Amino acid sequence: LLVPFRERFEELLAFVPYMHRFLSKKRIRHHIFILNQVDHFRFNRASLINVGFLESGNDTDYIAMHDVDLLPLNEQLDYGFPEAGPFHVASPELHPLYHYKTYVGGILLLTKQHYEMCNGMSNRFWGWGREDDEFYRRIKGAGLQVRRPSGITTGYETFQHLHDPAWRKRDQKRIAAQKQEQFKVDREGGLNNVRYRIESRTALSVAGAPCTVLNILLDCDTSETPWCTFG
Fold first, then answer.
1. What structural domains does the chain harbor?
2. Which residues, at least 6 apart from 102, have a Cβ–Cβ distance to it below 8 Å?
3. In the chain, which end has fewer C-beta atoms inside a 10 angstrom radius, N or C?
């Protein structure tokens, strides 16, 4: 599990033990990586996932891109090896908030091979949103088909969404050319040009559940993406 993260410790304390129990009960071998962005740039979910992919080691054969504020409530949800293509666990028919057809955020499983075929995610999305919409187009461009759960009868009660927007505002500001950029496909960047440094790697136990915290310093070329800062 690759979990992009910044300053949401109460959600993390709930997420790690819950997911460890959930996946252990399903007998799925797993390792939870908390991708903690510790630089002073705006949050970049996609770049963190790219870093997590590169740092997750060779003993994993597939990844789950997993939001820290989304917990699966239905044990019928499939977290198994997504051999046939990207498997979108948090599908629009089940996600409590996002219901449009091309949505692939929240929880998405991919083999490492398929993620590499997409060149990972674009590093140009600083601030909240749109990076998964661009990734949907990468998936299609790689000739892959998104699959989704079937036979799940719990509807919008399938997940618990932990995020409270009343006191934790999302960074939705659009600065300068970012307004136009957010709808473009990034045909150049991704896994091949993510710039970062690992400040520390810490094995942690949360209520008895193991995880690894990567403290990640992302780098930004302000001539390319000046909207990575609020300055």
1. 2-228 (3.90.550.10)
2. 133, 136
3. C
pTM: 0.91
The whole-number mean pLDDT for each consecutive block of 10 residues of the chain, a chain of 231 residues, reads 90 94 97 96 96 92 95 96 96 91 94 96 87 92 96 94 64 57 73 96 96 97 87 64
**Strand 196-206 relative to strand 87-88, pairing:** unpaired
Structure confidence at residue 169 (pLDDT): 62
Using alpha carbons only, how large is the chain's radius of gyration in Å?
A: 17
pLDDT at 230: 76
Q: Nearest 5°: phi and psi at 55?
A: -100, 0
Indicate the residue type of 135: F
Backbone angle region of 42, left / alpha / beta, with phi > 0 → left and psi within -120 to 50 → alpha: beta
Could you tell me if 15 and 193 are in contact, meaning their C-beta atoms sit under 8 angstroms apart? no
> From CA 2, how far away is CA 163, in angstroms rounded?
18
Give CA–CA dist 2/35, Å, rounded: 7
Closest alpha carbon to 179 in 227, 121, 138: 227
Closest CA to 65 of 74, 83, 77, 52: 52
pLDDT of residue 227: 86
DSSP 56: S
> Which one, of 13, 111, 14, 23, lies nearest residue 62 by Cα?
111
Q: Which tokens belong to 144?
A: 């892959």
Q: Give bridge partners of residue 197 from the DSSP assignment.
A: 217
Residue 72 token pair: 């699966």
